[in-house]
Amino acid sequence: MRKTLLYLLLAACSAGLRLHAQDASDNPSDDPYYRRYASSQKKHKKYTFAIQPLQFFNSALRFDYEMRLGDGPGWLQFGPAVYCSFKEDADQPNYYYDYYHYDDYVDFLHEPYSKMRGGGLDVNYKRFVNPARSFYLAAGLSYAYFNIRYWGRVWRDYTEDGLEYHEYGLDNRTQHINRLGINTYFGYQIPTRRAFLFDMFVGLAYRHSFAESGKQPFNKYMFSYGYTGAVFLTGVRIGFGLK
Fold first, then answer.
1. Which residues contact 146 (CB under 8 A, 6 or more apart)?
2. C-alpha distances in Å from residue 105, one per residue of 91, 92, 151
3. Average pLDDT over every residue of 103-122
């Protein structure tokens, strides 16, 4: 299932790039749709800046910068994100002692941790599919890195009275996660010639995470930082445009 989804997402990305290449190679004057689109876009912005407020729920601050490619319907989007959270959770030791059977901790986004920092970048190609510049399709790639501190149980060696002992106890540990992804989504952006920007989108993504072995992988939930598999995408973007 994962391989099939990965192939479909790769095909969607490839199709989006081919569409843009075709726009660049064709003569715009021979394309009626292109002429209608260009006419309606004369006063529209060429650069946009936005934030995604729903990312706050995942301890992230996400900024989007977009630039229109020529006078056509294609846009290139760069989405850097900063992840930062500092918290102490009393349920950490019990949770990681009985990882798969501890049900008292409730958080559908991720497992408990002491501190998390990270960063990431999404690069997407976005194409409006109607002359009014409202409905669009987008596809692209993403990368994120996470540094997560947590209290986990581990075997430790210590010496007392000249004797060496082994103990299974709590220790402050650090997990490093590198995550790659492929994004595909569609959205609706309110058409306006003013500076204000607002749009909504939904879609699917595939994430593949690389975590250090022997430590908690943080991959239990769909929105966990170390999750590998298909992920549902949704969000809103609020910002402004510039000429």
1. 83, 116, 117, 118, 175, 176, 177, 179, 218, 225, 226
2. 7, 9, 15
3. 81
- In sequence order, which residues have a C-beta less than 8 Å from that of residue 25 and are 6 or more positions away? none
**Residue-by-residue DSSP string for 158-185:** EEETTEEEEEEEEEEEEEEEEEEEEEEE
pTM of structure: 0.75
Q: Which pLDDT score, from 0 to 100, does residue 126 have?
A: 97
pLDDT digits (tens, 9 = 90+) for 48-87: 999 999 999 889 999 999 999 988 899 999 999 999 987 6
Q: What are the Cα distances from residue 147, in Å, to 43, 78, 84, 97, 182? A: 44, 23, 10, 21, 22
Name the E strands within the chain: 47-51, 60-68, 74-86, 115-128, 135-160, 163-189, 196-211, 229-242
**Number of neighbouring beta carbons within 10 Å of residue 27:** 7
Cα 233 to its chain centre, rounded Å, is 8
Residue 140 has a pLDDT of 98
Instruction: State the chain's mean pLDDT as an integer.
Output: 80
Work out the average pLDDT over 19-42: 49
Tokens read off for 237: 């973007």
Question: Kindly report the CA angle at 111 between 108 and 113, in degrees rounded to 5?
Answer: 135
